[in-house]
Amino acid sequence: MAKEKVVIIGAGPGGLTAGMILSHRGYDVEIFETKDTVGGRNAPIKMGDFTFDTGPTFLMMKDVLEEMFELSGKKAEDYLDIREVDPMYRLRYADGREFFPSHKNRDWMIDQIETLFPGNGVGYLIFLKREQEKYDRLIPCLKVPYDNWTKMFSKNLRHALPYLDAHISLYRNLGRYFDDDDLKIAFTFQAKYLGMSPWECPASFAIISLIEHNGGIWHPIGGLNAISKAMAKVIEENGGKIHLSTTVKELFTENGKANGVWLESGDIVQADRTIINADFAHAMHNIAREKDLKNWKPAKVRSKRYSCSTFMLYLAVDKLYDIPHHTICFAEDYKKNVAEMAESMVLSEDPSVYIQNACRTDNTLAPEGKSTIYILVPVPNTTADIDWDAEKDRFREIVLDRVEKRGGLTDIRDHIIEEKMITPDDWRDEHNVFNGATFNLAHNVAQMLVFRPHNRFEDIDNCYLVGGGTHPGSGLPTIYESGRITADIISHGDK
C-alpha cells in the first residue's frame, strides 16, 4: 500500500515538528521552503564567520522539545548540546538597579527581592505556588485542538476556568503578589513573547514567567537555529524530503479540497494532506485562493488584532563583552513605552531594549576574541504611520546610545565589523510576516482556543495549520505543540 503523502508549506519550527513526527509514523513527507535554509524566523543569519539567530533566543520548556524528538523516534541529546543559562537574565532599570532572576538558586532569588524590593519575598513564594496551580490546569488544555465548540466544554477546560484569570490583565494579576511596580515588571515583561502589553495581556499568561522560574532558560550550542537544523536532519533520516529555495505559489484545490500545491516553477505537487506553515495571514492573502475561503477571507483576516513588531540589530563585533547572555534594559517610563508600542503606535524615544551576548555561553558563534551582539526593540507593527526608510538610521542611534549607557556595551560603535538591520517593513517584505507582526495574531481572549484559526483548517478540506497563527499560539514551545497537534489529527483524527 502506498504511503499517504503530506506536503508542508514552509520549514519553520511548526512545519519541521509536524514533518518529524509524520515521517516517523510512515507518511511520505515533503517540505517546500522559499528560503535557502530551514527555520523560518528560527533560521540562522550568517555574516562571514559570525552566526546569529534570526528571531527566538530563549529556549523554555526544554521537555517539550525533547518530547517532539521522542515522538519522532529520536533523542534530542543525540542532535543538540543544550546548556542552561543561569542567572536567566539581567534586568536593568533606568535608575541603575540590576536584578538577576535565577531558576537554580531560590534562596538567592528571595535575597535579591528583599534587597531590591523590600517586603516582597513572601509574595514570590505565593506566586510560585498559585501560578503552579494555574499551570497544572492550563497546560493540558493547550495540548489538544479546538476545532469546534464542543471542545470548549471539555472536562479539562471546565476544571481550568476558575484558575485562568482571563478576565484580568497580567499586570493586575501580579499585584496579588507584589506591591512594587518594578518587581511586577520583572514578572510581566514576558508578555513581549506574545507581542502584547502586560496591561492588556490576559493574566492566564502569568504561567510564562512561572515556566522560566521553575524550568529555566536554555541555549543550544550553535544557537536556537541549531534546533531547526536538527529537526531537518531527523526528517531526512526518517525518509522525508526538504526542498529549499522552492516557493509555493498557491494551494492546489479541487472542489474545496486541498490536493497539494502549485510551485512558482509551474509544477504541481499532489498530496493527500497539505499543511500550511507560512505566516497565517500572509498565507490567506497569497497562498490560499479567496474563492476557497469561507471563514477566513482576507477582509476578515485584516480586521483581526495583531502583535507588535520588532526592530533588530545584528552586530558582529571585534571584542568580547563581559555582560550576561541575556539583558533587558527597561525604559525609564516602561508603561508609557509599552503604550506607545501597542496603543498610540508611535516610535518611542525611550525604548526598552533586549540584548543577547550569546558568546558568553557559546564560542561557536564567532571567531576567537570576537562576538555576536543581537539587539531587539519591540516597536509598532506596519499598521502604524511610521516611515522606516526615514526613521531607521535615527532610531539605530537611539538604540546604540541605550545599549552603551545602560547595557554595558561601551564604545560598541568602534567595534562593529559588520551589521544587519531588520525593520517592521523588512519583516513584512522580506520575511512574509503580515503587518510585520513578528508574534503573529494577538493573544487576546477573542483570538485564542476555538477563536484562533484551527489546526484542522476549517475552510479547506485536507488542509491543516501549524505555527504561531494557529492554536496554541506564538512562542517556540507552543509552536512545537501546534506541529504535534496537527500531526496527531492527521494520524489519529480528533481523538
Model description:
With 495 residues, the protein is an alpha/beta fold. It has 3 domains: 5-82 and 222-304 and 441-492, FAD/NAD(P)-binding domain, CATH 3.50.50; 105-215, no CATH class; 308-434, 2-Layer Sandwich (Guanine Nucleotide Dissociation Inhibitor, domain 2), CATH 3.30.519. Helix content is 32%, strand content 18%. The protein contains 15 helices and 19 strands. The strands form 5 sheets. A 7-stranded mixed beta sheet has the order 7-6-15-16-17-14-18. A 5-stranded parallel beta sheet has the order 9-2-1-13-19, covered by helices on one side. It has a 3-stranded antiparallel beta sheet with strand order 10-11-12, with no helix packed on it. A hairpin with a 5-residue loop joins strand 6 and strand 7 (98-99). Helix 1 (13-24) packs parallel to helix 9 (225-237), helix 2 (62-70) packs parallel to helix 15 and helix 4 (121-138) runs antiparallel to helix 5. The protein is globular.
How is the secondary structure organized here?
Layout: E1 5-9, H1 13-24, E2 28-32, E3 44-47, E4 50-53, H2 62-70, E5 82-85, E6 90-92, E7 98-99, H3 106-116, H4 121-138, H5 155-164, H6 170-174, H7 181-186, H8 206-215, E8 217-220, H9 225-237, E9 241-243, E10 248-254, E11 257-263, E12 268-270, E13 273-276, H10 280-286, H11 298-303, E14 309-317, E15 326-329, H12 334-342, E16 353-356, E17 371-379, H13 388-405, E18 416-422, H14 424-431, E19 463-465, H15 476-492
Parallel strand pairs: 1-2, 1-13, 2-9, 6-15, 13-19
Antiparallel strand pairs: 3-4, 5-8, 6-7, 10-11, 11-12, 14-17, 14-18, 15-16, 16-17
Helix pairs in contact: 1-9, 1-15, 2-15, 4-5, 4-8
